[in-house]
Amino acid sequence: MSEGGSTFDDPRLQPAARALARSRRLVVFTGAGVSKESGIATFREPETGLWARFDPMKLATPEAYRRDPEFVWSWYEHRFGAAAAAEPNAGHQAIAELERLLPRVAVVTQNIDGLHQRAGSSDVVELHGSMHRFKCLPGTHTGFARADFAGQTQKPPRCPDCGELLRPDVVWFGEALPGAAIDRAQALSAGCDVMLVVGTSGVVYPAAAMPQLAAQAGALVIDVNPERDALAASAAIFLRGPGGVVLPELVAAVREHLAA
């Protein structure tokens, strides 16, 4: 229980904390709901999600970028600017704290905002890329940071190596997930003993297959979400609530079990 008493009253909290305290190989699998509490809009929520307000086919495909690069780049500049101004929330910080408490913790995330790293998580697999990296449109030259083209005045900027348009190094519709990221995520999921799922609807594949892979390999799956989602039915423990509320209480309980 945290100082001042628990703000999350659920009898399943203690079994979840006990499982985490005993874990030797924990994977935390996160989605847009974790960053929503930092003020970053999700994609799929009715009425408020980004794809309810914008047409993804005009913003998140290679074809859209080739058709109107200035428009697409300006949309991402606005969105990335808002995300860069956001701060890690209590959920991000609690996940980072687990790394300091347990023997081995890896984060597999569908988010591109880098808030897990800013909160202190050191082993983060980014399944959908990162808003902090850029590559040329053909994909030949990768790994650019914003500083690499800061001196360019044209929008979108050009690749310093080949002169092609630069684009965000994120996964657009119709594109495959980065091979190295999906391979490591699958290996981590199949090899963990506990998976903590936070803030994801469990409908975007192949990323959503990670909790299923963990469960099939014998791991205990804990699902934290404000509402029951597609993953709750297959999770061993479901904790209802936002990550920013549930996770600090869960981590405090883990700390107590470790001290006992």
Summarize this structure briefly.
This protein is of the alpha/beta class and 260 residues long.
| Low-pLDDT regions | 1-5, 44-52
* Helix-strand string: HEHHHHHEHEEEHEHEEH
Q: How many discrete structural domains?
A: 2
CATH topology of the largest domain: Rossmann fold
The total strand number stands at 8
- Helix proportion of residues, in percent? 25-40%
The gross shape turns out to be elongated
What portion of residues belong to β-strands?
Answer: 15-25%
Named at the architecture level, the CATH assignment of the largest domain is 3-Layer(aba) Sandwich
**Amino-to-carboxy terminus distance:** 13 Å
Specify Rg, calculated over alpha carbons.
19 Å
According to CATH, the homologous superfamily of the largest domain is TPP-binding domain
Strand neighbour order, sheet with most strands: 3-2-1-6-7-8
Largest sheet features: 6 strands, parallel
Tally of DSSP helical segments: 10
CATH class of the largest domain: Alpha Beta
User: What's the pLDDT, averaged over the residues?
Assistant: 89
Structural class: alpha/beta
